[in-house]
Design a protein that fits this description.
Layout lengths: L9 E5 L3 H12 L3 E5 L11 E4 L2 E4 L4 E3 L3 H9 L13 E6 L7 E6 L10 H6 L5 H15 L6 H4 L3 H7 L4 H16 L8 H13 L7 E3 L4 H16 L2 E3 L4 E6 L5 E5 L2 E5 L1 E4 L3 H7 L10 H4 L2 E11 L8 E5 L5 E4 L1 H4 L6 E7 L10 H15 L8 E14 L19 E3 L12 H18 L13
Parallel strand pairs: 1-2, 1-13, 2-9, 6-15, 13-19
Antiparallel strand pairs: 3-4, 5-8, 6-7, 10-11, 11-12, 14-17, 14-18, 15-16, 16-17
């Protein structure tokens, strides 16, 4: 395969999530003839929008950080960066309603000082942990800076164990480490690989002062991950096939690939398989991976989103995080949803939601409406126009200790077949950033095998 000219090479990308569309864009930019096959009627994978009456609803709240350089490349490539702006400077309101003395608002902030001094002032003013606990956090942060997230031994322990070894109290874990970790890892510290946690905190907090500044879509996710992506793909010459579920992947006698859907076959010199791990296991040819069964050991972790539309404004901030409450993070989605009138639409994002993902809507309403009233006094007495729930049971892979040995790289033993997806060995947890990076890596491997000179879009990730 490596000796074959790529001037007229044909590529098939299976999967229209962020990994797949990234791969398709880069392959097309490299001059290949690209076909993208997606089983759903839309692009975007697990980061999408749908209509509910007059509202445009995201299936879940997705954020990214300034350190997510691959996803930022992706936004630039689809000409959508202005639609998903970043904070000028990290500022996270954190409301603790578990105190006997009454609710208290604190903030996690950074300054423009060099690392690690950029967080010192914010930590000193953070009211939800004691002075002694703050000193312990500083020591743990320095220890984090010395870790190697690629160390298999670190992957073998849970983050809570590592934190306790650094003298972190249970309160500090809940009020600081899990506040960030649950949202980024989709797991609490006892259930998260210390290696993945180290990757998150080292990159987000200790790489450069603005690394943890938060960005999110100011428009429905579908406007970015479907509408703008489709426009970019079409402009690049990618042939998009929606509602095309791939059911077979076979080698032909001439060493190429035949990708089969219900009633149609596509020939390819190179294939990027960018679908969930279960579908990858189903489609992989015999011998493509040494131990394909490990893909089935990669279990999933759910995320629950509770959506509440009030008849008046009850939250003045764009978002906040909560302590002492079942509520984790709350976002104002009023403008992006297209809500008309004087009401307000809030989305409550609940990660690591194994205990709640299958609860009936009525029970979730009984649980979360009073909690929002406890957190937001203005919600008391406000009318509720709509209450609904979105559930992603397979939102991410579970980042449990030992997960690193289960995640395959992009290479397979089958020439011209490459794997992509946030669940592959990106070094990142299951994030939009990890998905885009996996698309980069798959294309790098595909172009190298085709003998095609290329440059990685991110110098630091090459």
């Amino acid at each position: 395969m490596s000796g074959r000219s790529s001037a007229n090479s044909r590529a098939v990308v299976v999967g229209g999530g962020l990994a797949g569309v990234t791969a398709a864009l880069r392959l097309a930019d490299a001059g290949l003839d690209v076909k993208l096959l997606e089983g759903r009627p839309r692009l975007g994978g697990l980061a999408f929008s749908f209509r509910r009456g007059d509202l445009s609803v995201d299936n879940g709240q997705h954020v990214y950080l300034r350190c997510c350089t691959a996803y930022r490349w992706f936004l630039d490539r689809i000409e959508g960066a202005h639609l998903a702006p970043l904070q000028d400077r990290l500022d996270v309101p954190v409301l603790d309603v578990g105190r006997a003395a009454g609710p208290r608002l604190g903030r996690l902030r950074r300054t423009a000082l060099p690392v690690p001094l950029h967080l010192a002032g914010g930590l000193a003013a953070y009211p939800h942990i004691s002075l002694a606990e703050k000193a312990g956090v500083a020591r743990a942060a320095l220890a984090l800076g010395r870790l190697d997230p690629a160390d298999p031994a670190l992957d073998g322990i849970d983050f809570a164990t590592w934190l306790r070894r650094q003298g972190q109290s249970q309160r500090t874990i809940e009020a600081l480490w899990d506040l960030v970790g649950v949202a980024t890892l989709n797991a609490t510290a006892p259930n998260a690989s210390a290696a993945l946690a180290a990757k998150v905190f080292r990159t987000g907090l200790l790489s450069e002062p603005g690394a943890a500044d938060i960005g999110w879509a100011a428009v429905p996710l579908g406007d970015l991950h479907d509408t703008l992506v489709r426009k970019a793909l079409e402009s690049a010459g990618v042939e998009i096939h929606l509602r095309s579920r791939v059911d077979s992947l076979t080698r032909t006698e001439d060493g190429r690939w035949s990708v089969g859907t219900d009633g149609e076959r596509f020939a390819a010199d190179t294939v990027v398989l960018a679908v969930p791990q279960g579908d990858t296991h189903r489609l992989l040819p015999d011998g493509a991976l040494d131990d394909p069964g490990r893909l089935l050991e990669l279990t999933d972790a759910p995320i629950l989103n509770v959506h509440v539309v009030y008849d008046r404004k009850v939250l003045r901030r764009p978002f906040f995080a909560a302590l002492g409450s079942p509520v984790q993070w709350v976002f104002d989605r009023t403008a992006s949803s297209g809500l008309q009138g004087h009401g307000q639409y809030l989305a409550v994002s609940q990660s690591a939601a194994q205990d709640e993902i299958d609860l009936p809507v009525a029970e979730l309403r009984r649980r979360y409406v009073p909690e929002l009233e406890r957190l937001l006094p203005a919600a008391r007495g406000a009318g509720i126009r709509d209450f609904f729930v979105t559930r992603e049971r397979t939102a991410t892979f579970a980042p449990t200790p030992g997960v690193g040995r289960l995640r395959p790289g992009t290479h397979t033993s089958a020439p011209g077949l490459h794997l992509a997806g946030a669940w592959t060995a990106t070094g990142w947890p299951a994030t939009m950033e990890g998905a885009v990076r996996s698309g980069f890596t798959a294309v790098d491997a595909a172009l190298e095998a085709l003998g095609r000179p290329h440059e990685h879009p991110l110098q630091e990730a090459a």
